[in-house]
Amino acid sequence: MSERPDRRPSPSAAKRTGRRRPASPPAPPPGAPASAPPNHRSVIDSAVYRDGLRIASPTTLADTFRRLREEPDGMAWIGLHRPTEPELHSLAAEFNLHELAVEDALEAHQRPKLERYGDTLFVVLRAARYLDAQEEVEFGELHVFVGPDFLITVRHGGAPDLSTVRHRMEETPELLSLGPEAALYAILDAVVDGYAPVVEGVQTDIDEIETEVFRGDPAVSRRIYELSREMVEFQRATRPLVGMLHGLMAGFAKYGTDEELQRYLRDVADHVTHTSERVDGFRQALTEILTVNATLVSQQQNAEMRALAEAGFEQNEEIKKISSWAAILFAPTLVGTIYGMNFEVMPELHWVGGYPFAILLMAVVCTSLYLIFKKRDWL
Question: Which pTM does this prediction carry?
């Protein structure tokens, strides 16, 4: 999330209504496992705020519930990473979370969406970050529960770094005092700002791919395919977010959203729209690059086939010449071989004109073969 020092709401805007809390948390729904002591490794950070200031940092979910009951005007911000099922059910029992939203939070690979269950808002976000070493995009998943006086984040994956978001919000208590909605918009902004390095990294990859395509790199097709798949995932993360933010903006008047938060969300929506358009452009560019690469590969294959055909034709011509001369030289060899046999009864050997006749016969046969092969362009 980028800092916006010029946006400082007045303290009077921090007023909000809290919900009534039961004296003790209600029993979990039928079939759900009993509440178990939370696994501390799943709780990344848990805090209770009042007027935008952290007043408590409980180490367990049970301590967070207890401390929040003691602060009617407080707000709890609970950050979890891959929580267990008992942990989520304990949260559902304390904050009256809908079972369908809890089920989605337990299972990753959800599409980005925005759902409202009574006074609780459930948001699913897909974060992304660019890995320079591997030159690939890594996607994470974030589930956010927003109620009148609580915000719960369930993170699946490494992105985004919500500790940075929390720290920046704590540095601006005027903004955090606006309630869980302000924290939600800060998280949205962090997720969207995290798309910017991904966009730049992908743009660099596409520039490199274009160079490799025209250089004839044989491995570029695989790289285009892998990057295209990442852009499909990126598009699935950004395109629904545009509609989600417009849905939130449509409820400004109905839910009495603070004007500062309205401006905040509009800015985030502008960034999302710009990112979504860039991703659409990347997909189109990769499709065109793949087409150009296929054309270049086809042209290269055709050139190789023509070269092979020309080489075969030249080789065939050489074979014709060799065969022609072999046939021409074979004729005198045949005559000489016949008359070189050691038979006693061979009348031509004792004929006075036998030698000139043999020479003439060789010459006639060789000349005839030469003229025949020459006429057929074998020589």
Answer: 0.69
